[in-house]
Input
Amino acid sequence: MQERDLRPPDTGARRLVDQPQPRLARLVQGVVDVLHLVGDVVQPRALLGQEPAHRRVVAERAQQLHVALAHVEQHRLDALLGDRLAMHERHAIGAGVELDRRIQVGDRDPDVVDAAEHGCRVYPRRSVRLALVANSASGGGLDPEPLAEAMGGAEVFSCEEDDLARVFEWGPDRIAVAGGDGTIGPVAELAGRLGVPLGVIPAGTANDFARAHELPMDPLEAARLAASGTSLQALELGRLADGRPFVNVASAGLASVAARRAQPLKSRFGPLAYGLGAARAAFAGRPLDIRVVVDGELVFEGAAWQVMVACTGAFGGGSGIGAADATDGDLDVVVIPAGSRLGLVRRAWGLRTKRIERQRQVLHVEGREVSVDLPPGTELNCDGEFRDGGLERVTAEPAAFELVVG
Output
């Protein structure tokens, strides 16, 4: 909006508000915060300065109009909509403060609102600083520039430790991470340390974390949500023995073997590679002798096809642990005991339908601290990345970061 007269509103100006229902709203407009009232306004027949001599206003219809006054400048409807500061009807508008201290919204179908009825206060606010941490190797190659542009202009950083340190020093107001599931954990930890929201832009192969939280799968749409979303959800963060954070699942056994077998197939088959890898693992894998302690209590000791320690419980391009809840602050531990290879078909179905924890003989417990003893040299799969060890002590940090979900 452009203002042609910045004098205080005239309380004697005519009232054009029909049954006002004011409510308070706090909005961000460019570099200012706007606190204003919203009400129902009526529409006159003519533009200001073109009314009949008696200046009678005839109401044709009522509609709601969000109005910002002093020191707010705006020209385009798309920017107004981005700040939820516009009429419900989506057509371009312009506005100015008239000499009689009324506001005229000029378009083909003019609307008038009384400045005194819709007063507002303006507070200075610095520009929002957005950081985009991108894994350029994700999904066969990621170009972060279109994502940064979709976010409205974000500073781009890599996912290397040195760059994450630079993000911390820069101190953004919001962080977005673009990459696969394995990229999310360290950036989520960083967002939690800074106390700022985290947006997730799925750019990997499986994108299990994004699916688990029903985030947009289109990267550009996810980037816009990451920058402007207002609905946040506090989530837990898991940590391996070496401090490595994770958001989905850390596991050993067939899941790790399946992921390793799927690795060379990702570029050709995408998420289907995980199913092919699982089929190969079922024929070649062997049970592990493990010992599992949860919150100081021994819960399992013996041979197992697989052991999983989960936050969201999502992994393998659509498989998961349905009971896992990343908002409760507890880790979910699932152990699939050793059995026949033929029985693995039922276990695979349980993982795919996210009901594995309900199957007979499958162990499911929850706790804050988990210790898993594995045979030496056993490889782990942590959020889709391979690691040597780390399950000997796994902990959960409740409400460690806030995810932008809407």
